[in-house]
Design brief:
Blueprint: H1 2-8, H2 10-110, H3 114-159
Helix pairs in contact: 2-3
Length: 160
């Protein structure tokens, strides 16, 4: 029965079979072409993303270098200011030494007693120690403030 059907319609069946094979081959070729196009587009998108990432990284590195350079300039300026203040403090120390000496000479010539001269010398010593401590605290404060500014700039650049 099937054999008789195939014998009677073999040309039509062959045409249908060839059409089916042609449709299957066309679908396979279409899928292969689509996969190649997708892979090419995906590779191009990855390459573009790598370039964008590299550009962003270089911009962030430049910004960080600029921040560090500006911070170093401010640190150098603070150091120069500290040196100027130290020089002025040195002159003040010399004046304090001169005042101490004058107090001792005054005490020796007038004979007012050692308490007035000792008090003046003590006050001069307290002032000189206070100046030195203030200089140290100012240096520490300058370093801490600059470190805070650099940290804040780096944090801001990371959060952008």
């Amino acid at each position: 029965m099937i054999w008789a059907f195939v014998k009677a319609y073999w040309k039509q069946l062959l045409i249908v079979l060839m059409l089916a094979a042609l449709v299957v081959c066309g679908m396979v070729a279409w899928n292969v072409h689509g996969s190649r196009q997708y892979d090419a587009g995906y590779a191009q998108a990855q390459a573009e993303q790598k370039q964008a990432d590299a550009k962003l990284r270089s911009l962030k590195e430049q910004e960080k270098a600029t921040n560090e350079r500006e911070a170093q300039q401010r640190i150098d300026q603070a150091r120069n200011d500290a040196l100027d203040a130290s020089a002025r403090a040195g002159r003040l120390q010399q004046q304090l030494v001169a005042i101490r000496e004058q107090l001792r000479q005054y005490n020796a010539t007038v004979g007012a007693g050692s308490s007035a001269a000792d008090t003046g010398v003590l006050l001069a010593d307290v002032l000189s120690k206070s100046l030195e401590r203030n200089r140290q605290l100012a240096e520490y404060a300058d370093r801490a403030a600059e470190a805070g500014r650099v940290c804040e700039k780096q944090y801001d650049s990371l959060t952008r």
